Amino acid sequence: MIRQYLRSVILLGTALLSNSHSVTADISADRFSSAIRFESKIFEIPLAGNAFFTHKATHAKETISSAGLTNWSESSTVTSIYFRTSKGGNFSLKLRAKTAEGQQSKIRVSVGEKSEEIELVSPRFEDMSVGEFRVAEAGYVKVSVQGLNTSGNSYGEISHLLISGEALADGVLYSDDPNYYYWARRGPSCHMNYNVSDISDATYYYNEITIPKGEDKIGSYFMAIGFGQGYFGIQVNSERERRILFSVWSPFHTDDPKTIPDDQKIVLNKKGTDVHAGEFGNEGSGGQSYLRYNWKAGITYRFLLNGTPDGNGHTDYSAWFFNPDTQQWQIVASFKRPKTNTYLTSFHSFLENFSPNQGYLERQVEFKNQWVYNGEWNKITSARFTVDNTYHAKQRIDAVGGVTPNGYFLKNGGFFNEVVTPGSTFSFNNKNNAPNIDFAKLP
């Protein structure tokens, strides 16, 4: 679930961090500052990278693809499209839509409390005027579309929204790059990079995480311990399945694990009871392990990672999870990474959504009580917030991080309007005691 380019991003965590705070961003920069500044500019927003089914029955057949909204036959289905204005004000809205030959349909288009009904009658794509709407301030806008009645078996198809007006005079932010449509629908990922610049030869990383109730959406991956060669955390795979996941990248860069030479394959040293171990690909490749475990929102979970060179040009990485049900540390897995001779580096945490259909939902996680061991325990006192390429490319910017009374937090998805400048650093006075762990007794 972690994108391949994350490996370059997480190296930022080794930089020396300051104690300065920055919780606002000049969102007029980059795209907004380069936008054409007059109200007659028309922006064509493709549903392909900006639309979601915010209500859809399990039997419904609607799809969102490169063509936009298709197979639209259920009146209960609500399709919502999102864009971010640069200021408050009025804007006009059109739909590029069509119906099947010989059919006509009536649909409802809603923005906030205001809605308009329009009829679709053309079998070819036409730009249909919806009306004038108003937003109070800069931020994300949701436009929702729902079918009312049709003379046939389909309400038609919609490929684009077309918007213009005062609220867009300084530009508008939406996913406009086909290479990013998939990633934009997943939403931007974000990281909290812990300051370990003064700690050398680290052999253990320790972290605790809590998912607030209601923030454990399907498709979420909450990484407790990221490091230079892999990642360790928990995820929500479905309504019935949750996992504890630990993976280590191969030193051979590929998305296909079958192409990894034998001398660069990740080797499984051991794994815990009921742990699945194998390989992963598509976003880098390497060794993967996971334990199906029904972790719960609102409960704090503890994670421990060891990374130690074996003296033969390899490094062993081992991950433990403290099970609150048994009050015991249990091994998830231990992997040997070839052609690697290093202690632990690049301590960080991470938040992502790996399900494009869930990208309109918000998720949040709190990280607390971080420690690093190199012969003695060292507590973490500052961290740096960073984001992924989806955010940097200004396809979406609903990702933030900061501090709470208990530690650090990350939040993404949901098209919220809060902005935290990527690169912002945060300090936290951790008053907890160092972990009391007998390493010799770990399974």
Automatic annotation (TrEMBL):
Keyword match tRNA-binding: no
Domain DUF5077 residue range list: 45-167
Keyword annotations of the record: Signal
Annotated signal peptide: 1-25
Signal is among the record's keywords: yes
Protein name in the entry: Nematoblast specific protein
Organism, scientific name: Sphingobacterium pedocola
